[in-house]
Amino acid sequence: MFYVLYLAKDLDVHPRHFGKNLRDEIERKLNDEVEGKCHGKYGYVVCVISVSSIGKGKIRQDGTGYATFKVHYSAVVCRPYIDEVVDVVVTSVNKAGFFAQAGPYEIFVSNHLIPEDYEFNTVGEPCYTSNEDGAQTVQERTEVRLRIVGTNLNQAEIFCIGSMKGDFLGVISAAP
């Protein structure tokens, strides 16, 4: 789920920042551009740990005066994997299943991946309730433990499919 990776990025810097604080400006700009964003196949960048090197700047030829710097850095990234077990918070429930949030990524659990002893209930707030004793309820703000069974990564976001079927999976705590 969380990893330390060594990455590289080209940053464009305006000429007004050239001077004794150039390194600080490059590090600030790097943090602004990568932290909290999805980085394609690597996942979400949680934070930049350190900048290992900043290459020599190359002045762009488009007449703006900007310089491009190649920055090598290490960062903590968050990426889900198939068969990973995660604790999530349910964000919405409908007849097709429910959506949940686990850190920066969203997980959908189809009603086919919810145990058979749960039944969709529309009385009051939509929820899934266990048939055995009715004590287990999946509704908004419920904490649930899931297994990730599928992932879809693209440049802008990570989307997962989860399952509540399995040993030690299910409701952790009810909604407040």
From TrEMBL:
The keyword Nucleus applies. The keyword Transcription applies. Residues 82-158 form the S1 motif domain. It holds the Pfam family S1. GO terms for molecular function: single-stranded DNA binding; single-stranded RNA binding; translation initiation factor binding. GO terms for biological process: positive regulation of nuclear-transcribed mRNA poly(A) tail shortening; positive regulation of translational initiation; transcription initiation at RNA polymerase II promoter. Belongs to the eukaryotic RPB7/RPC8 RNA polymerase subunit family. This is DNA-directed RNA polymerase II subunit RPB7.
